[in-house]
Design goal:
Layout (H helix, E strand, L loop, with lengths): L1 E3 L2 E4 L4 H8 L3 E2 L5 E3 L1 H10 L10 H14 L3 H12 L4 E4 L15 E4 L12 E7 L7 E2 L2 E2 H14 L3 E7 L5 E9 L10 H8 L3 E3 L5 E4 L11 E3 L2 E4 L1 H11 L8 H11 L3 E4 L7 E4 L10 E3 L10 H13 L3 E7 L5 E7 L14
Parallel strand pairs: 7-10, 18-19
Antiparallel strand pairs: 1-2, 2-4, 3-4, 5-6, 6-7, 8-9, 10-11, 11-20, 12-13, 13-15, 14-15, 16-17, 17-18, 19-20
């Protein structure tokens, strides 16, 4: 094999079959197939291909050791590729986009279903991947990673493709999630300035960390504000912060938590505690009791989830109770967008075979 243009050029007798049957690599002019390191590893393990310079196990191990020095994430990338390809999917890696005439993308790879081929069919999804220990909100090119992920998913959706995120843990085990932008809406009338001002003038008792208790005069007009209890209303501190800030015209100084909550109210949503589900809020489209809460919303200031392992756990819990797990992403002063991370259908949960 020859190393050329950041890929291995394989011109053995099996090269045309690798492309025609499995869409592995990319054909090169003059004959041969351009392969990445992980495509070579997959071809050896799952396609029975023997490469001249690494045909022996010892030579393969020595070759792998050398490649790991250049790319320490090679084993993780291989686990991702294996999870996608073992079920039969065709996968084109980003380094081959230009060779195959595929438009530039920030995706790690593009996926076709097992009965399709890049030479004749449209792709089904685009793929990015993360290590389970990677922080959700690390900086990437000056942007928060989730903000960039939201933008990426919208670009993918505009092409009528699925946005897939694969996460690999320390045991090289892979799980699959789908992401998209959610726009939760409810039917409640958003509270107006006069309602906030009226609440601010009502008799209240400071409960410290437990918030504020207000005597309800029987004319409470917005059910999402506060929890009805013992003939009055208990407001969390962030709820009362909204009341006083709106009344005093100081919404530009709202805390992150209060800003998100005010945005949820402005969307006509009825908010309640999401404690039982490991999030800050559960949100109803209307009155509590008229149906279940379709959305669980995270408070980014809580410090949980911190990384992709915790995000996967939270999303899986939400899926188990038929709810959408949403992570708020700030846009402007007090405007928020919501990234939904969800489990895919059972026939699209790509995971690699574990041999340990």
């Amino acid at each position: 094999m020859e190393w050329r243009d950041n890929r291995w050029i394989f011109d053995g007798p099996a090269y045309s079959r690798l492309w025609e049957k499995s869409a592995i690599g990319a054909l090169v002019g003059g004959g041969g197939l351009g392969l990445s390191d992980i495509e070579i590893m997959f071809s050896v393990r799952h396609r029975g291909v023997s490469f001249p310079s690494i045909s022996e196990d010892s030579a393969m191990l020595e070759w792998l050791n050398g490649r790991l020095i250049d790319d320490p994430r090679l084993l993780q990338e291989y686990a991702i590729l294996e999870a996608l390809r073992v079920p039969g999917n065709k996968v084109v890696l980003s380094q081959n986009f230009s060779h195959l005439g595929i438009e530039n993308s920030n995706s790690w790879a593009i996926r076709w279903a097992s009965d399709k081929h890049p030479a004749r069919d449209k792709p089904d999804s685009e793929v990015v991947w993360f290590s389970s220990s990677e922080l959700l909100n690390k900086k990437v090119d000056g942007h928060q990673s989730l903000e960039s992920l939201l933008q990426w998913s919208n670009v993918v959706s505009s092409k009528d493709r699925i946005s897939e995120v694969l996460v690999v843990d320390e045991e090289q085990s892979v799980v699959t999630y789908r992401i998209l932008e959610s726009n939760p809406k409810g039917s409640l009338r958003p509270p107006e300035f006069n309602e906030f001002r009226r609440i601010s003038k009502m008799k209240s008792v400071d409960l410290g960390d437990e918030g504020v208790f207000i005597i309800d005069d029987g004319e409470w007009k917005f059910d999402a504000i506060g929890l009805p209890i013992h003939g009055g209303r208990r407001l969390e501190n962030i709820e009362y912060e909204i009341v006083t800030s709106v009344t005093n015209g100081e919404t530009d100084n709202l805390s992150t938590s209060s800003s998100i909550l005010l945005d949820l109210w402005s969307r006509g949503l009825n908010t309640r505690s999401g404690f039982k589900y490991g999030t800050k809020w559960r949100c109803y489209p209307g009155d509590v009791g008229e149906g279940h809460a379709p959305w669980l919303v995270v408070d980014p200031t809580s410090g949980n989830p911190k990384n992709w392992a915790e995000a996967c756990l939270s999303s899986r819990l939400a899926s188990g109770v038929n709810k959408d797990w949403l992570y708020p992403i700030k846009e402007g002063e007090n405007s928020w967008r919501y990234l939904q991370i969800s489990r895919p259908p059972s026939d699209s949960r790509w995971s690699n075979p574990i041999r340990y």
